[in-house]
Write a structure and sequence with these properties.
With 453 residues, the protein is of the alpha+beta class. 31% of the residues lie in helices and 28% in strands. It is built from 14 helices and 23 strands. The strands form 7 sheets. It has a 7-stranded mixed β-sheet, with helices on both faces. It has a 5-stranded mixed β-sheet with strand order 20-19-21-22-23, with helices on both faces. The longest helix is centred in the N-terminal third of the chain and has 20 residues. The two termini are 25 Å apart. The structure holds adenosine-5'-triphosphate. The site of adenosine-5'-triphosphate has 16 residues, from strand 10, strand 13, strand 16 and helix 10.
Length: 453
Amino acid sequence: MADAPSMDVVVSLCKRRGFVFQSSEIYGGIGGFWDYGPLGVELKNNIKQAWWRATVQERDDVVGLDASIIMNPRVWQASGHVDTFADPMVDCKSCKRRFRADELVEHKHEAESVHGQAVDIAGVPCPDCGGELTEPRMFNLMFKTYVGPVEDSASVAYLRPETAQGIFVNFDNVLTTSRRKLPFGIAQIGKAFRNEITPGNFIFRDREFEQMEIEYFVLPGTDEEWHERWIQERFNWWTGLGVRKEKLRIREHTEDELSHYAKRTVDIEFDFPFAGFAEIEGIANRTDFDLGRHAEHAGRELKYFDEESDQHIVPYVIEPSMGVDRCFLTVLIDSYAEEEVRGEKRTLLRLHKELAPIKVAVLPLSRNEKLVPTARRVWDLLRPRFMTQYDDAQSIGRRYRRQDEIGTPLCVTVDFDTLDDEAVTIRERDSMEQVRVPIEGLVEALREKLGGA
Ligand code: ATP
C-alpha cells in the first residue's frame, strides 16, 4: 500500500469521481471556493452525521443549535473579530500578488543568510517575481456585506468567520428553554467564511467552509479537567472514524500563539502530504471571555445560577472546533490505498463504513435481459434501506474497481445462478471476500456487515 497519496492524485480522484469540483469552473473558477459533487455531498453529510451523533445524540449533556450566518455586527465587535481577526499581509509592487507575511518568514531567513544581516519582511523579494514587497499591513479576514437597500456604514454586516459566536449569543435562550445544569454544551454545524489571503492546498484552506463547533460550559475551576477530557474525547472521535493514530498528533499552542481569548489551546493535527502535520481541530479553553464580553457589550447578564454556591457565575467554556472540509480531506488521504491484485493495480478508499458515500452497489453480471428484472428487483429492495448505486456498464471486474475507488464497502452481484437459486453474492471491499446469500436474507446480511452504518 502506498503510504500517502500525492495531492495531485487526491484532487484528480475527487474530480474524476464526482467528490469535489472547482466552484464556478466553467467561468474559470474562483479561488478558495469548492463545490461538492454527488459523492462528495454524501461523504460530507456522513461526516456531519457522525459528529452530530457522537456529540449530541449519544451524550446527555449537549444540545444542538442552528444560528444565522449574518448576525448583528455588534456581535463581532464584542467578540474582538472587528479589531483583531486579521492577518498581516504584504503586496508585491511589481506583480501585485499578495502574501501572508507570516508565510514569508522562511524567505526572510534566506534573505538574511544571503545579505548576512537582519532584514524585515519588506526586504524579502517577492517569491514569485523577485519584485519589491510593501510593508506588512493588517488585513481583516471577515467578508463584509450590506443588509437592506442602503449601502452605508450603518448597514454593514459580516458573514460569520466562525460558528461559535452564534452559540454564545444564544447562551441564555438555550439555558432557559432546555433547563440545563452545568456542565452542558451547545453544538452547531454551519458555514463559516474567511477572506483568507492565501487559500490553497485544495479544500484545506477555503474562503467558504463548514465548521462543527461545541461550546461546553463548565464551572470555573473545573475547566482544566474538562479541557483534558475533551482533548481525549475528540482524539478518540478521529481514531474511531478510522484515521490512523500514527498520522495524528496533539500539539500544544505556545504562549505567543495563543488567541486573545484562550487560556490554553491544543490542536489535533494530521500529517498532510503537502504540509506535514497541520491543524484539523482546535480545542481551546476560552474561559469566561466570550460570555463576559457579550454581557458587557449587550448590557445583559449572561450568568448561571449555581445552586451549590448560591451564586450567579459566568461559566468557563471549552471549545472543540473543527472544519468539515479538512476532515473530508483527512479521511480521503488517510483511507487512500493502492494494492497489487493478480498483477493489476487496484485503488481503494478504505473509508469507515459510516462515512462511505455508497454503502452497497448492485451489479448484474452483465446487461443480459434475463438478469435485468432480478437485478432491478434486488435494487428496489435495497434502495429504501441503504445508499445504493446500480452499475451495469463494462466488465464486472472493472465495476468492482470503480466501487473500490469510491470506498463502497459492499457489492451485491446478480448472476445467472440467481435466476435458479434466488441467491446473490456479496463482495467485501477490503478483503475482496465473497459470500453467497439468499435474497430473502440479503437486507439482514448487509446490515450485519455494515454494523449499523
Ligand atoms: P489555521 O491556523 O489553519 O488558519 P485557525 O487556527 O484559524 O486555522 P480555527 O479558527 O481554530 O482555525 O478554526 C477551527 C477549525 O476550522 C480548524 O481546525 C479547521 O479545521 C477549520 N478551518 C479554519 N479555517 C479554515 C479554512 N480557511 N478552510 C477550511 N477549514 C478551516
